[in-house]
Amino acid sequence: MEWRCAGLGWPGGGPVLRWEGGRTSALAYGRALGFRAVGERRCVGARGNPCPLRAVVPARAAQARCPECARLDRVFSVAADGVPDDPRTYRVYLAWFGSGLVKVGITAEERGAVRLLEQGAVAFCWLGRGPLMAARRTEELLRAALGVPDRVPYARKRAVRGALPGWDERAAELAELYRRAVVLEGWAEALERVAFEAVDHAAAFGLGPGGAGAARGVVREVADGGAVAGRLVAAAGPDLYLEIAGAGEDGSGGGGLLVVDTRALVGWELAGADAEAGVTVPVEGLGPVTRGAGEQGGLF
Length: 300
Fold this sequence. Notes:
The chain is α+β, with helices and mostly antiparallel strands. The protein has six helices and 14 strands. The strands form three sheets. The chain has a six-stranded mixed sheet. Strands 5, 6, 7, 8 and 9 form a five-stranded antiparallel sheet that branches.
């Protein structure tokens, strides 16, 4: 049976690996997790439709789509204003990733907090709700008036996630931005303000009181036969935090805490790998990390 990865998802508030065809595998913190890439990376298609060519895509590509499927996916993207007549109700939110790192965004109300989990928001609050274009106009107003972006690179999110302040400080920063946001003039008339409530995702992500801790590197590319295996200790957005065996007390050796950017796994067929397989793929931020490959196992 082919198990081709479709990415990391958060449908029930906890992390799951999604597979082509709709299957999912729930992930549990503290448990062994290992995989080995098999064959070639294939295009995942667009908007739930498979790629008619089953095209091979580069291992380093930002998304597992061929040029034609990427174009089709963008055409019907809310983020690209491809569906301005979408009749659904949308919500405007503030997403908190770390001290001083907050963004404004919108998501369909029916999705609840899933979009915030997918982005790796450690905390968030709602600002307003209403039609799509009203939400979009208010998002732009808030971005300019509050001086916050509508996009944050994942590298910056990872950098601040390693050491987080306590909940009181996180909630206070959101509360202050919320206070400034709701008194602004220029909100779209059709957008209803939502009462303040700060929501914490630290438990859902498996983050301790101080955050994820310092990761030694990031896996952003795999290749046929390349393995990654260890103990899952946390997850946030598309990132998995794995404790790899072999680290000394001073952090030396081939182990330590690594981040696996699961966007790099999308489009690959993955087979199980024994927890002792370690890491046999490139790790950004480290020199070569190699351990003997263990026997293939059934960890998925």
